[in-house]
Amino acid sequence: MAPLRNLAVRDLETLVHPYTNLAALRETGPLILERGQGVFVYDSQGKAYIEGMAGLWCTALGYGNEELVEAAATQMRKLPFSHLFGAKSHDPAIELAERLKEIAPVPTSKVFFCSSGSEANDSQVKLVWYMNNALGRPRKKKIISRRKAYHGVTIAAASLTGLANNQLDFDLPIAGILHTTTASHMRGRPKRSSRGGWPTNSKGSFTARIRRRLPPLSPSQ
After folding, report:
1. Which residue ranges form the domains of the chain, and what is each CATH number?
2. Which residues lie across from 35 on neighbouring strands?
3. Closest CA to 30 of 1, 7, 2, 63
4. Which of 28, 54, 111, 124 could potentially form a cystine with 97 if both were Cys, beta carbons 3.0 to 4.6 Å apart?
């Protein structure tokens, strides 16, 4: 194995990488990326890679997009940062919320901005719990997710995520988060009926299957 370059050594001494075997990383070193253009990112050796995940699903318009660069530079000169806490607002947030409401696939009353998908899912859990408390339903707190589903890595989102490595040794899932079988037809398909067909998927049959496959609930749940 070639010796680690300076950037790789500095990385190992300063950063913690999520979803990474940190012991193995000390032997192999990180992949140092320097720039991006279109669908490609380039490492410190100039090698090109297709960025198939679009960052973490947030660079779908590609790298080096001059329209985005100019919009960001203009906003940085005008108002680099502001938040929405305490009734504060600003034009970019209002304009984006209006646009999102226009293109939403279902009628949407309001937009609540978050910094990540994990934070968004944690916020949804909090809002559902808050709503049920406000409506006098304090015990209506259970949320059903699926095994093998991915919803994020924060406390509530990782509890919803149906992947063992996202929960082992983290004391997850938290109370009130339940899991049923995966929706994968390859790894979790229901058995064929005696007539050779697949089970029907009416609302009633779906609910019955979910109930059968959930773990037993204790009286406190």
Report:
1. 117-213 (3.40.640.10)
2. 42
3. 7
4. 111
